[in-house]
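Practice problem 4.
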């Protein structure tokens, strides 16, 4: 029998538009693969919708809060509907950046030095030499990420960030942006991103022509193997399954020393036309539709 796949997309997080774009691509792939597909723009009645539909599998194409932080995964566990991507705990840990940093540290993975504080505390006394990176502790797609280079940079941020807003503040790591896709515990490859201006923010990620993609990343053979191995370790440390993308800074600014710093692991990486996982997989000979098929066929509940 043909599997009935409920495709979850949209939702109401800050990454809604990205999710709709991912969902459009995945829906096209699922249809081409011969699955029965019901696409759902997720709203608060999602539990009722799924109980009525009774799908065989859920393809989770949600991004951001409620979609990749363990919430929708917990609901699917209660409804006993197998789903793609990581489970409840891995999703919650990866989305909570301070918690993920503690897991990474315990696994011996190098991350930028960081601390959690309110924006007011940061303005009053920054704990690290500038520049620093300040980010919301539980967002993706570079939503709510700010680079503070000088004390003057705080002034325009005061109009955007409440003084009591909690932030993760990290030392700024110079160097290159390297990202690695992992599928079913195997590193597919590493790509280097070179924004044409500024840093790799939301606009650079989702606007054509805003960043160069170098695939494979122009690294030495040893460095390439190392960053792929680090991404697999991060994937496993969090207990992820399916596909993930780990983001690194490669500091090669010091003579005779090159260091990778793990920034985060994304358990719901984008599947948009500009997303990195499909681009990395294609270089390895894995087509977009093949990624989708593998995710659907490996979908499960946490305790299966």
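Answer key:
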């Amino acid at each position: 029998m043909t599997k009935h796949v409920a495709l979850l997309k949209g939702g109401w997080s800050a990454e809604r538009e990205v999710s709709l774009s991912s969902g459009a691509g995945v829906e096209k792939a699922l249809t081409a693969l011969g699955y029965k597909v019901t696409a759902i723009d997720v709203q608060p009645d999602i539990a009722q919708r799924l109980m009525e539909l009774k799908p065989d599998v859920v393809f989770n194409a949600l991004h951001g809060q409620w979609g990749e932080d363990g919430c929708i995964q917990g609901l699917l566990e209660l409804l006993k509907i197998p789903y793609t991507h990581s489970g409840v705990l891995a999703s919650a840990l990866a989305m909570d950046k301070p918690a993920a940093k503690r897991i990474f540290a315990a696994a011996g993975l190098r991350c930028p030095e960081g601390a959690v504080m309110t924006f007011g505390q940061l303005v009053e006394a920054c704990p690290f030499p500038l520049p620093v990176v300040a980010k919301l502790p539980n967002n993706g797609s570079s939503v709510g990420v700010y680079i503070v280079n000088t004390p003057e940079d705080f002034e325009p941020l005061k109009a955007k960030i409440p003084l009591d807003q909690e932030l993760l503040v990290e030392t700024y790591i110079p160097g290159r942006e390297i990202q690695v896709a992992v599928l079913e515990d195997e590193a597919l490859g590493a790509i280097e991103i070179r924004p044409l201006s500024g840093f790799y923010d939301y606009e650079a990620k989702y606007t054509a022509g805003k960043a160069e993609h170098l695939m494979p990343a122009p690294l030495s053979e040893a460095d390439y193997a190392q960053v792929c191995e680090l991404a697999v370790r991060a994937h496993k440390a969090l207990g992820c399954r399916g596909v993930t993308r780990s983001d690194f800074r490669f500091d090669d600014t010091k003579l005779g020393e090159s260091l990778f710093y793990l920034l985060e692991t994304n358990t719901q990486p984008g599947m948009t036309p500009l997303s990195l996982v499909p681009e990395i997989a294609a270089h390895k000979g894995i087509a977009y539709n093949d990624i989708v098929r593998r995710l659907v066929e490996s979908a499960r509940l946490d305790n299966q």
